[in-house]
Amino acid sequence: MKELYSNSLQKKVIQIALRTQKNFFYRVIQRTVLTIFPFVLIGSFAKTIQLIFLSKNGLFSNLLDFIPDSIYFQIEGVVTAISNLTIGWISVIAAYLAAKYSAKYFKRDDQLAGLTASISLLIIAYTYSKKTSFAFHQSILGIRGLLFAILMGIFVGYLFKMTSKKASPINFSSMSSSALNRAFTSMTAIFLMIVIAAIFSAAVNVTFYSNLPETVISQISSTNPSTIPWLRLLRTLGLGTYTVIMSFLGWSGPYSSIGTSYSDTTSIANLNYALNHHTTWGAPDIFNSNALYHTFAAYGGTGATLALIIAVFWISKDRDFLTVSRWSLIPSIFNINSPLLSGIPVFFNVIFFIPFIAAPLVNMLLAALVLQLHLMPPAVYSVPVGTPGPLIAFLGTNGSWQALLFTLFSLFISVLIYIPFVRIAEKVKTIDNLAADERGEDHEI
Amino acid sequence: MKFNFHRPVTKKGRHALLFLLLVLVIIGIPSYLWSKSNITTIAGRYNSPLSPIIMIPGSSASADRFEGLVSTINKKYDEHHSLLELTVHTNDSITYKGSIKGNDPRPFIVVGFENNQDGYANIKKQAKWMSVAFDALKSRYKFNNFDAFGHSNGGLIWTYYLEHYFDDDTINVHRMMTVGSPYNFEEKDQNKRTQMLDDFIKHKDKLPQDLTYYSIAGTKVYTDDGIVPIGSVEAGKYIFESNIKHYTLITLTGNNAEHSDMLTNQQFISLFHQYIIEDRSTMPTNSKTRKSDSAQINK
Known about the structure:
heterodimer, A: 0% strand, B: alpha/beta, Rossmann fold, 8-stranded mixed β-sheet, 10 helices, 8 strands, 37% helix, elongated
C-alpha cells in the first residue's frame, strides 16, 4: 500500500517536473544555473580556503601561523581576488547568460543582449558612495542576486524581441559594416534597458540606507524572544524555513551557514551557563538557532545538502550527478554548497524543492524532540568557521557522544529524504533527453 | 519505492563516501582532543562579539540627541549601526526605543534621563540612574566590553559613574570620548576648583586603570566654545592624567566647533569614527590582527 502511494507520488512529481521543464522561463533559468557551474566551483574552492585557513576563527586558521605576514597577505589577496571575481559577481555572468539564451530563443542579437544585461546589472548595483569611487553593492552581484539577475536577463531578451528586428547571422567577410548594422538594430533596446537600469539604481541607493527588509527580519530574529519554550521553538523553525526557502531562490535568510553569529542573547546565556556548570546539559534555551538550526539543519550548507551528496553517491548511476557531487564534496564538507546547488542544479529546481525544505525541517523537529526528552545536551560552545556539519553538534557540546550519534541518525534520515528525489531527477533527465533526441533537437534552450 | 542498502551502486560513489568518512574522522579527532583540553579557548572565542558604544547626552538633551550623528555615520561610512535609546525616569523605570540588530557587533546605546537638568546635584542623580540603566543593559544583552561617549555633561556623568558605580570586573570599558565636558563647570580658572572637580580628583583611583580617554574641547574665540570654557575641559587632566592608560586632549576649532554644533562637525565625526568605532584592536578576539574578517563580511 505504502509502496503504491510513494510510486504515485513519484509519478506525480515526474509529471510536474516534465511539465515545468517545457516552460521557457524555467529552461532559461536552469540552463543559466548550469552554465555558471565552473565559476561557482572555482570560486567556492577559493572561498573555502578563505574561510577555513584565512579568516579569524577558521577551522585551520592556526596552521598558517608560521607564514610571515608579507606572504600571508599575498595569499589572502590572491584568494580573495579569485573568490570575489567568480562567485562574488556571479550574477553578472548569470545576467549575461540569461539574456543571451532568451535573445537567441527569440532570434535576436544574443551577444549584445547579454552584454546589455551585464552592464545593466552593474549599473543597478553601483554604489553612490563618496568614499570609494568604483564600488558595487555586493549582495546584488553575488549568489544572492542570482534570481534577480536571471529574471532581468530574460527581461532584456524580451526587450530585444519587442524593439529590434531579427539579427542577421554574423558575416565575417564584411566585418565592420555588418557589426555596425547589428549594433544599430539593437540600439533602442540597449538604450531603453540602460535607462531602466539607471532608474532602478537610484531606487536601490535610496532604499539601501533605509535597509528596510533586513531591518524587519533581523528585528524578529534578534531582539528578545519570548520566554515560552514552544514559541521559541516555533520561531527558530520559522526563521530556519524562511532561510532555506530564500536560499533556494538564491537569496539568504537571517541564518547564514558560514560566519554564524553567536551574539544573540540566548546563545550567550547558554554559554554562561555552560561555563559555570562545566556542562551543556540543562542550558536555559535549548531551542535557539544554535541548538537547532546551525547544528542540525545545515549539514553541508543550507538545505542539508551534504545529505544530497551522500544520496547521489549511494544510489545514483547518473554520470553528471556523480561528477558534480564529487567536485562539490570538498567545499560541502566545510558547509559551502553553492557548487552543488548550481551543478545538479538545485536552485529553482522543482524536483528538489521538497527535500531541500523537508530535510532541515525534519532535522530540527527531531532535534527539538530529542533535546526536550533530555536524550542529548544542546550545542552551546561556538565552533570554528567551516567545521564540517556532522561534527558541529559533537564539538559544540564539547564532545557529547549522544549528540554525535543523533547527528549520524538525523543525517541518515536526511539522506532517506533525498534519495527518492534523486531517483526522480534521474528519471526526468532520462525522459527529457530521450524526448529531445526523438524530436531531433539540439538542447539549445 | 524500495531502498536497497547493500552498498553504493557505483565505484565512484563508494570511493567518495569513503573519502568523506575519512575526512570527517581526520578532522574530528584532533579538534575533539583540542577542544576537550582547552575549553576556555572555546569560551574565549565566544567572548561576546557584541561591544556596544554607550552614549550619554548633555544636560537638557534627551535620548534622541544622537540620532542625527548615528545616521550621519551610517551614511558616511557605509555602516549599519543600530541605535537603542533608553530613557531612565525619576522613579528608576526605563523606557526603550529602537533595537539592537542580531548581527550588529557595534550598536549605539543612548542613555538619556527624564530629569536632564544641569548642576552637580543632578549629575550625581543621573550617574545613579546611569547605573540602573547599565545593569539593565548588562543583563539584557550580556556584553562584556563597551566604549563610552559623553557629550558635555554626559562626560561628567560618565566620570561620576565610573568612580562610584562601575565596579564589575567582568565588564571592560576600553575607550571613552567626551566632547566639551566641563570638569570645572563654568569656571575658567583652574585654581578655583569647584566642589565637583575636587570630588572627582578625590576618587580618581577608582577609575578603570586600562581606560583610554579622548577629551575633545571646541574653541571659537580662544577661550571657550560659546558655552564651556576651555580651561574647564582642560581641568580633566587633574583627574585622568597618569591615572588611566592614556589621556588625550584634542582642541577643535573652526566652523561648527561651538558647543552644541560639535556633533555635526566633520572633524569630530572623523575622530569619533577613528578612535571609538573603528578601533578593532579593542575588540575581544583571540586572533592576531592580520586575520581579517573580510571573509565573514561577504557571506
